[in-house]
Amino acid sequence: MKQDKIQSTALEVNLAETRKKKIVIPSKHRWFISLSEDYFGIHKRANEFMNEYHHPYPDYKMISDLLKKICLEDFWFYQQQVDSSQAISLLIDIFADLLQNAKQEYNSILHTLLKLAPQILDKNNLEKALQILDENYSEKYMENAAYFRNYLSKLGENEKAINLTKKVMADSLDFWQKTSEIEKWFEKKRKLFKLDYSETVKNIGKEFFQHKRALLAEAKDWEQLKQIPLYSDLGNTFRQFTSNFKHTIEKVYYLFYLLHLPGTKKLNNHLLWDMNRLLGIVKNELNHEQVLEFLKNIFQLFAEFKDQYASNVLDCISTLGKEIISLKENDLIDYFIENLIELGFIDPGQVIIREDWQLEVDPNHLKNIRVWLELIEMEPHKLQKLLSALIVNLRIGGIFISDTDLFQRDITKLLNSKM
After folding, report:
1. pTM of the model
2. For residues 155, 158, 160 and 166, what is the CA-based torsion angle, rounded to 10 degrees?
3. Other residues' Cβ atoms within 10 Å of the Cβ of residue 115
4. Which residues does 277 contact at the CB level (< 8 Å), separation at least 6?
5. H or E segment at 131?
6. How far apart are CA 67 and CA 59, in angstroms?
7. Which pLDDT tens digit goes with each residue over 194-224?
8. 327-356: string of b/e by CB count within 10 Å (b at 16+)?
9. CA 163, CA 75: separation in Å to the nearest integer?
10. For the purposes of burial, counting CB atoms within 10 Å of the CB of 218, is it exposed (0-12), middle (13-18) or buried (19 or more)?
């Protein structure tokens, strides 16, 4: 579970040198800067923005932040200019360019444009902004559906805004139906469940999506659109559906399913937290062979998510490990330890010096040490293999503990155990 930060000093030096090059700003953008000459703060932001926007190696985070301030904090100023229509049109053109090129800050830039739209008083520029959104339509719109509905609804009975939002919502429903297919999943995994949930899963299956799509097709205004779930609403609906399964092991296997859905990616931290809560009681429903099978399946899941969600996976390992050790069954403990060692250990990785001169390493390095030590403390003699693996990993990958980590307490706990 190693997560090293690779930084190129040569790249940093080269980028620093490129920032010294002369930046050429087109006349129309120099004109935009000149509008605010008598307003220090507004002028400073406009100047910084245009310089960064035309830099050969632009910092899109900086561009996004400055554009947000210009459009949401300074917009009153540009709105009252004699040439306000031209100034706002220029900003909209910039949005069109950034939506195509600023991939790193795409969502932030999209959110700013959607928040800006209701403030545009000029009809032609409003139509232009909506046209830009339509022409740059992307599947990324789906996960931002709430912004479309919340901000474009402020435009009232604007047909183009309503139709664009309906398209985003329709694509969200289609995406979730195609990627979830819960009825097919349940049929395939039926043997894992103690009860038959064939009828239950229909509540978020094909019929569910057909009904929502029919409501969407009939919707004519914003109030009707508010009755239909958005992309994020669907994710929460699927997560809450966990309560429909009676047995803990069934809920855990359903969480396995959710963790592999592309639509729940932003919920994975929450789903792993849900799983961690269930791991403390799942063993009570399983016999010996079922526990072995369960351990095999869950360590495969941990392997998939360990790099991106290391902290949550470590929490799950801690909870599950304590429950397995408490069973006092040597073959289960051995099987758990073998899988845990095979899963890997988080080294400190590359040590980074922050701007405040503090040293920084992977925070999950120390957490990994503590999780393993807590398990070893429970049964030191039975977990000698894990202790040996910890020593080997620390010898090979190194160890990093700061003075503020109070690691002495962990060592004291270990020495006070049945060593």
Report:
1. 0.80
2. 80
3. 17
4. none
5. helix 123-135
6. 12
7. 999 999 999 999 999 999 999 999 999 999 9
8. eeeeebbebbbebbbeeebbbbbeeeeeee
9. 27
10. exposed
